[in-house]
From TrEMBL, chain A:
Residues 163-230 are annotated as: Disordered. Residues 175-216 have a biased composition (Low complexity). It comes from Carya illinoinensis. Coiled coil: none annotated. GO terms for biological process: cytokinin-activated signaling pathway; phosphorelay signal transduction system. This is Response regulatory domain-containing protein.
Amino acid sequence: MERNVFVSRRRIDGFDVLPSDSAEAHVLAVDDSLVDRKVIEQLLKISSFKVTAVDSGRRALQFLGLDEEKSSSVGFDGLKVDLIITDYCMPGMTGYELLKKIKESSNFREIPVVIMSSENVIARIDRCLEEGAEDFFVKPVKLSDVKRLKDYMMREVRFGTANSGGTNKRKLQESCDPTSSEPSISSLSSSSSDSPSRSPISPSSASSSIPTPLDSPVRRLKMTNTGGLI
Amino acid sequence: MDGVAQLQKQLVDFTDSLFQEGFLDEQFNQLQQLQDESNPDFVVEVVSLFFEDSERLLNELAKALEQKTIDFRKVDAHVHQFKGSSSSIGAQRVQKVCIAFRNYCEEQNIEGVKPWHRCLKCLQQVKLEYSLVKNKLETLFKIEKQLIAAGGSIPT
């Protein structure tokens, strides 16, 4: 397994940052939980990512230079962010709100965003994917989840577009079995068999001929039992 | 080499028992896999953070339940956090009582038992499970330390 070479950290305006002259991808991790931040940081480091971990959506935006309150003249250009992974439930700004802000920004909407949550609520996952999230990890996040992150970045590099989440979204919609879910997820068993109207971004989920991969988010959902579906 | 072999066996047996009795789950294994030469104390560090965080949350919960008017949303938020952190380190029994805490407190139909009473009972259970797992983990780390001090290595 690749290992990160130990590099010394600099502090810029309260953020721990790593020098950006290495070839490794840089992930911005956002989580208000101290324990979870430590875990996600280590998961990412072990997987050969550079990590900056912050404790709120607000701090994440500040780091990117997107915060309206602080002047964006604080140049963080040397610290390009290649992926953002954020917790959903956070006080102040939720992960969903952070996702929206990023996708609304012309400078940063290309950055893939992954959401983490301890609650495997289908409606929540749907909302995030519709808003442009690449994937949704149910906590506790595993090493196998983090290893998948490379796929999102490689797709970005290879195709150079932001629409790399299309495939995953399609899988999620097709594989979600309405009969095993709660009634509130009626949007999945929509009467229209053509394009699901609730999902403007992703391609229409027509046939369900693609089987659920073993490690897809939906399968993880079904097997995880953290409090159940609402 | 007898001492080392004995300590290794003690460690393996003790760890096994923690999993069998449900104190720890697969997530704890995941954490151990994340430990390597460049982060040799990772598990101890995360667990220490968990202890700190838990003690803070237990204090907040006790305070919240002492108020004249209980803010149940706040109580729920704290329990949610506790559930999350215990799940992240694999403290399965703590996680389970946190889930029960939220369900029980939200349950509207329990006759004769006031919500805050229920919450107090739940808090007691969470405290109990937390102190049990804390004790177990501290013992685990102690055996590991002894093993390393005796010149042995932790079996993977």
